[in-house]
Please model this.
Amino acid sequence: MWAMIVKEFRQLRRDRRTVAMMVALPILLLVIFGYAASFNVTSIPTTVSGPEARLVAGLLRAPFDVTSVDVSGTRAQAVTALTDGDTAAAVVTGPQGATVLLDGTQLFTAQAALRAVDEAGAHLPPGFTLQAQVLFNPGLTTSAVMVPGLAAMILLFIGTVITSLGVVRERQAGTLEQLAVMPFRPRDVFLGKIAPYFAVGAVDMILVVAVGMALFDVPFRGSILVFGLGALLFLFVALGIGVLISSVSQNQGQAIQLALMTLLPQIMLSGLIFPLTSMAAGVRWIGYLLPLTYFVEIARGVMLRATPITSLWQPFLYLAVIGAVVVTLSTLRFRRLLGAS
Model:
């Protein structure tokens, strides 16, 4: 038995990548998630419009963070700003009071704003009222917010974890050498690897959204084409990450470990569970580098707020840039692997 223990220690010592993951990964995740795991919203971007906009803006307290004041603004403009995702709260003022319009798709932000509205009543002049109205998700139901995110998680799981085993299986089965002698370009190999998973992921996305709408009464207010375009772009990025992981892994164990290293931060830091505004600034920037952050924004915007594609150009652009980088790196890795074979 002692000989077996010594053998395993020696084998583990040779696998430096696994040892590094076993030691460094728990510490890294503890630090990142410790700063990210917070439901406390300390800042809510707020626009104030209407004839009493300046008065009300001066009376608002934290967590409201007034970003613009427009005395000529209307309720319709405030609703449009919420629909487009330009603000989390929009205050519309009138002679006798003000209404705080809230984006119900930002669940914890809306809950914090409702508490702040109740507390703000004590600072208002006599006869001036302040009331809140939640749009897009009036009941602040968790399912309406989570179903679009869960659809994104399923795409991410298929694209990253399942696909990451592709090239590893080829290497262990000895078929990578056969690909090297065939008239395939690295780009052809890459596209060939992701095509089956792309089809499965697309079907899964349709099923998850349809079941979520049927079981949990989640609305779909926006354009199916816009949602589908965002889903396909995100799936392409996720599959590219999976193939890239498989190309740098020596075995299936390493592939799964690397896939989990990319999967967990995206779930925790993308705004899927914890609002980005509640994260420490040193951790929040990581969320802006993750593709899931932008697809969650697209999915919730299209399904719950009917956000048009003209207002979602930024997340679409960021997904396209990330996809271009991932595809380029994957193609280069395949060129290197096929050349080495």
User: Anything to note?
Assistant: Residues 44-135 form one domain.
